[in-house]
Design brief:
The chain folds into three domains: 117 residues, Chitobiase, domain 2, CATH 3.30.379.10; 341 residues, TIM Barrel (Alpha-Beta Barrel); 199 residues, no CATH class. It contains 24 helices and 15 strands. Strands 7-8-9-10-12-13-14-15 form an eight-stranded parallel β-barrel. Strand 8, helix 7 and strand 9 form a beta-alpha-beta unit. Helix 15 crosses helix 16, helix 20 runs antiparallel to helix 21 and helix 21 runs antiparallel to helix 22. The longest helix is centred in the C-terminal third of the chain and has 36 residues. It is globular. The mean pLDDT is 93. Keywords: Hydrolase.
Length: 700
């Protein structure tokens, strides 16, 4: 039977979704026909994106359907049953068609597809993407991304993924974007490219912004502040700070720099009509400026540049971590020229959002950050930045953590979330061994497909059940994988949150959970990066609900209650149980392909990391007690947990399951040292030496 689909073919967003629907129709063994809504003829599926289009079918959009929402409704067309996708805008229609395609793959027949009304829970669902040129971070892992990120084929795949997963904002970040985008009228030599080279860049940006818009995705260009290009420095101001020097430091600003930046903002808006907005990161290169002076600089440069443009654009204002919230919120609320709401970005738990679903820390460890939302804002919304500096190589999937996060942190003053990293670009995959039969993906984000699906779909609709993700796994890897792989991931992927809750951190490099790394330095002996037993002993917990090793020992020795706290031993028990649950779930998967084995091997790796952390916590409890009591049995027990078959064996298992697939790879946290789990074998052994070779005097 040919399934006839009627829709407005002039809509790029609907056409994109209909292509996915056509694939689903063909996949279930049916044929496909297309038509226009305003032409007579039989219709099996009708797609509408406005009240006017719905009226062509004699239908009305339900009043409960909101922006970006949709309804799937059965209706009678020319005496026969048909399905209608009813929406108020093209994005809603697109999401409705994508949802219908997904359900058709799962249910196989149109008659089995249930009616529903679905709305977007959050208006702002963004991915953070750091560009490799004029980059905030500098490392080989960024250098090798230039070619891939300049390739529009990459962006087509990436934007397709975003649309299918219901993301509607792409934020592009680098220090100083303007020379790559415009030639300043009064500072033309600040752009170092020839006319031909700049034309190529402009074609690139124009195509990228248009592709995003055609998929219902708004693009924002976000930069840091008082930076100029090397070419500007050469031709206009030899004292200016160029964009390849360290990003943090005192301000250097002149009227020329302000004019150049203001003019660039205006030209960027005017020359790229599909660019939805821009954003600023107030703080870098402003160390010595008073809070009022920082905000005034933004107003005189960015605000004025936006006002001078020929059209309004949306705005992201990163919440300054060292500025009184009243200064920034007053600046935003008194400037009524920007489309509302303005999006105020706040880092959730600084650089390590995969630590706790509770807001315990913001950028800079600021006190009083709640001043941005208490009292509630009038013309802006808070947008939580979910930074991931904790796992780049191993796949991560833990839907309950995301659901818990959303339930805990969506308030009336919250507009949405960003998901992304400062230290990892999900483009070229440089971690996996090339030409491996396991490597069924081209780009890094495709390897992490389930991570992006979980966040995107749950940001759009937090009630999305696990069956949606299980069905997608089944489509890729077979029925038994669909039932059990998500359960396996969900069990073992609690490890980063456990370590993040237990081990105190601050900025990017102070924790890298999948590598068991923590450092405050950019140049150091790589061995010092590993979180040793001594580090665990000396660390306070990030989440105050947890007891540190030494706090636990103090309470134990003093006979104090542990009620109301999560002890290190309880955390160890949970980690061990989760690891075994994940490995048990893997054992029930009977399907086998190289691509599936790559997924299951990552589950194993997380399980061994969980077991390693569990054993190390138990060793830490024993050694902390030894420090207090001097009892030799406590020291021997600590050594017991660090040796095989416990911690040392778990780390060897981790090495075994990763080294055949993953290369030694650049990692921002390690500077020029290449990362592998094998790199830290000596540090695992050093813990045993530390426990065995230290004699302590009991501290009463």
């Amino acid at each position: 039977m040919a399934i006839a689909v009627a829709f407005r073919t002039a809509s790029p967003q609907v056409c994109f979704a209909v292509d996915k629907l056509k694939e689903a129709i063909l996949a279930v063994g049916e044929t496909y026909e297309t038509g226009e809504l305003n032409r007579p003829g039989h219709v099996h599926i009708a797609i509408t994106s406005s009240e006017e289009e719905a009226a062509m079918l004699g239908l009305a959009v339900d009043t409960s359907v909101l922006a970006e929402g949709f309804e799937i409704r059965r209706f009678v067309h020319q005496g026969q049953q048909a399905l209608a996708i009813l929406a108020r805008d093209e994005s809603g229609a697109m999401y409705g068609v994508l949802g219908l395609a997904e359900q058709l793959r799962d249910h196989l027949e149109l008659s089995f597809i249930p009616e529903c009304i679905t709305n977007a829970r959050l208006a702002f669902r963004a991915l953070k993407f750091n560009l490799p040129w004029s980059s905030y971070r500098m490392n080989a892992c960024f250098d090798l991304q230039h070619e891939t990120v300049r390739d529009l084929s990459f962006w087509q795949s990436f934007l397709d993924m975003m649309a299918v997963n219901r993301y509607n904002v792409l934020t592009l970040w680098n220090l100083h974007p303007f020379p790559y985008m415009v030639r300043s009228v009064h500072f033309p030599k600040a752009t170092p490219f020839s006319d031909e080279e700049l034309t190529e860049w402009k074609q690139y940006w124009t195509s990228l912004f248009r592709m995003a818009k055609d998929r219902g995705i708004e693009t924002y260009v976000i930069n840091w502040n008082i930076f100029v290009s090397e070419a500007f420095k050469e031709h206009y101001d030899a004292q200016a700070v160029d964009d390849l020097q360290f990003y943090y430091g005192d301000a250097y600003s002149t009227e020329q720099i302000k004019q150049y930046t203001r003019e660039s903002v205006t030209q960027m808006i005017d020359e790229y009509p599909d660019l939805a907005g821009l954003g600023i990161s107030l703080g870098e290169r402003m160390d010595d400026m008073a809070p009022e002076a920082r905000q005034t600089w933004i107003e005189e440069v960015y605000y004025e540049g936006m006002k001078n443009a020929g059209r309004p654009v949306k705005f992201i204002h990163r919440a300054p971590f060292s500025v009184d919230p009243l200064i920034t919120r007053t600046s935003i609320e008194k400037n009524g020229f920007m489309p509302e709401p303005v999006w105020v970005e706040v880092k959730f738990n600084w650089s390590h959002s995969y630590s706790s679903s509770k807001l315990l820390l913001t950028h800079g460890g600021s006190k009083g950050m709640e001043g941005y939302w208490n009292p509630p804002p009038t013309n802006y919304k808070i947008t939580w930045m979910i930074r991931n500096e904790d796992f780049f190589t191993l796949r991560w999937a833990q839907p309950d953590f995301i659901r818990e996060h959303l339930a805990e942190n969506i308030h009336d003053y919250v507009g949405g979330y960003y998901v992304g990293s400062e230290c990892f670009i999900p483009a070229k995959d440089y971690s996996h061994v090339e030409d491996s039969p396991q490597m069924s993906w081209t780009y890094a984000f495709e390897k992490h497909w389930l991570y992006y699906m979980l966040w995107g779909r749950l940001l759009y609709d937090p009630s999305t059940p696990d069956t949606v993700f299980q069905n997608e796994i089944s489509q890729r890897y077979g029925e038994s994988a669909g039932k059990h792989l998500l359960r396996a991931f969900s069990s073992v992927c609690k490890m980063p949150m456990a370590l993040g809750s237990f081990f105190s951190f601050t900025w990017d490099f102070t924790l890298y959970a999948e590598g068991f790394i923590a450092t405050n330095r950019t140049e150091y002996n790589s061995g010092e990066a590993f979180i040793s037993l001594k580090d665990l002993l000396e660390s306070k917990t990030f989440d105050p609900a947890y007891l540190s090793l030494r706090d636990y020992a103090d309470r134990w020795v003093n006979g104090e209650s542990m009620d109301g706290f999560i002890t290190p031993l309880q955390l160890a028990d949970t980690l061990e149980a989760d690891a075994h649950e994940g490995l048990k779930a893997l054992s029930t998967i009977v399907d086998s392909t190289p691509a599936l084995s790559s997924e299951t091997a990552d589950v194993e790796a997380w399980a061994y990391l969980s077991l390693y952390l569990a054993a190390k916590l138990r060793a830490g409890v024993c050694y902390a007690l030894y420090e207090k009591t001097g009892e030799e049995d406590d020291r021997r027990n600590a050594q017991h947990w660090l040796e095989a078959p416990y911690a040392a064996k778990h780390w060897e298992d981790l090495i075994d399951v990763t080294k055949s697939r993953y290369k030694k790879q650049p990692l921002m946290h390690l500077g020029e040292t290449l990362f592998s789990w094998e790199l830290f074998r000596p540090q695992v052994a050093a813990d045993i030496v530390f426990v065995g070779g230290n004699q302590v005097t009991a501290v009463n």
